[in-house]
Amino acid sequence: MNSTALLPNSLTANDIHAFTNIKLRTVYDLMNTNPENGGIPVFRIGRSLYSDKEEFITWWALAKERGRKNYSA
């Protein structure tokens, strides 16, 4: 899955894993990390974690930009 248009409005860890190819365990770790500390913004329904599509896309763009800056330094 490479197109953001194909993503559902509420993303599960599996959706994020499929889109980014980040290991599923890492996705769960990021979903359980405060967004102020670099984590993926999420909301909880019961015991399940979801990320809003638009918030995730913004987070993904910022994460890629931070990675580029750190890598090229």
Which features does this protein show?
single chain; 73 residues; alpha+beta; three-stranded antiparallel beta sheet; 3 helices; 3 strands; globular
Structure description:
The termini are far apart. The chain has 73 residues and is an alpha+beta fold. It is globular. The protein has a 3-stranded antiparallel β-sheet. The protein has helices at residues 13-20, 24-31, 53-72; strands spanning 10-11, 43-45, 48-52. Helix 1 packs across helix 2.
Give the averaged pLDDT, no decimals.
92
Radius of gyration, whole Å? 12 Å
Oligomer: single chain
**Number of separate strands:** 3
* Run of helices and strands: EHHEEH
Category from helices, strands and their pairing = alpha+beta
Number of helices: 3
Strand order of the largest sheet: 1-3-2
Sequence stretches where pLDDT stays below 50 over 5 or more residues: none
Strand content: 5-15%
Distance between the termini: 30 Å
Largest sheet: 3 strands, antiparallel
Shape: globular
Helix content: 40-55%
